UniProtKB/TrEMBL annotation:
This is Secreted protein. Residues 1-30 form the signal peptide. It comes from Streptomyces hokutonensis. The lineage of its organism: Bacteria, Bacillati, Actinomycetota, Actinomycetes, Kitasatosporales. Keywords: Signal.
Amino acid sequence: MRTVRRKVVMAMLAVAATVGGLAAPGTASAAGDKFVTLRVCSGSTETVKFFFVGENQYGDWIGSQFWEIAPKGCTTAGGYWWKAGQSVEFHHRKPSTGWRWEPRLISYNDTRDNAVYDLWIG
C-alpha cells in the first residue's frame, strides 16, 4: 500500500511541476520578435501625405506623426519601430483622392530585426 501511495504522490508532484511551469509568466518580448522602420515609396505624380497606426516595440497601439512623399519618391518614417509579422494601418492622402487607409502586413520572413521595410503606393 505504501508503494502505491508513493507512486500516486510522485505522479501528482510531476503533474503539478509541469502545470506550474506552464503557468509561469514569460518575458514581455519574445526572443524571436523583429521590429522595423517603414519606408513608403510612391509611383504617383502627386505629393502623398501619410501616417501609420499599429503596434510598436513596446507592445503599445499608437499612431505616428505625418510625413510627405514627393512625387515619385520615397520617405522613411523614422523614429518609429513596428512589429514584423503584424499589420499596420497605412493612412494616406493624395489631393485627387482624399484620405484612405488600408492594412499593410509587415512580413516577418522577408525582413530582419532593425531593418527598413519598404511599402509601395501607386
